[in-house]
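Entry 0007
Protein: Fungal N-terminal domain-containing protein
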Amino acid sequence: MPVVAFTIGSFGDILAVLQLAWQIRQSLSDAAAASEEIQTLIADIDSFRHALDSAHSTLKHAPHVPQSVHNGVVHIMRVCTTLLRQVQAKVSVRQKELVKKHGARIWRGVWAACAWEILGGKGDVDKMKRRLMEQTAALQTLLSVLQTAALVQIDKRAVEDRATMTRMLQLLEALPAMMKFDEVTVPFLFFLPNPESVRSGVAPMTRMTLEQFLAVIRLSLMCQRDRGSAESDGYEYSLVPRNELRLM
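Output (structure tokens):
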């Protein structure tokens, strides 16, 4: 499934909807004292804003967003923008009419007393709330898809890591046979050149990085080809008494 980074433009869509919702809430606050319905509407808008904030945070921290989720979020934000702008336009038309005829003070009084009716009453307000709830539910569904996709990626990585570890374990188990040492042979040590300190012997299987482990495999193959002195890839090694393998 294609993945995309959640772009600045996409975040801008969410932030624009949050700004619209905040502006409407602020306008409604002036009329909240006169109407219980307006107070309920403010609470519903706050819930809507909190849902958008949560979605914004989730998308912001997601490393990758599937294209289908990205497109769905953009569509939802456009629908929400249209709904909220319709509410703003309805209020703006009445505001301009009253301010033109009677002045701004009269408008403030009318808005405080009649905001519910100006918004269209129960029918229009309930329709708007229902549409916003539908978009919120759709947004939550998309976030669930995003989280599922993230879990799938984690499972895939776990399978790959498990396969890698299994292969490394197989190589470790095969190493003694590759070096053709029997069980009673005294373990050998590696002596790596270190210009900053005195050389010290290092057991091949202690605290090894992946690169060091691969070097051991290469050296073991060299041992199979030539049990005496040899040179390969710029390294010279030789088997010495006590089965100590020295790197020059």
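Curator remark: The longest helix spans residues 121-179. The chain has a mean pLDDT of 74.
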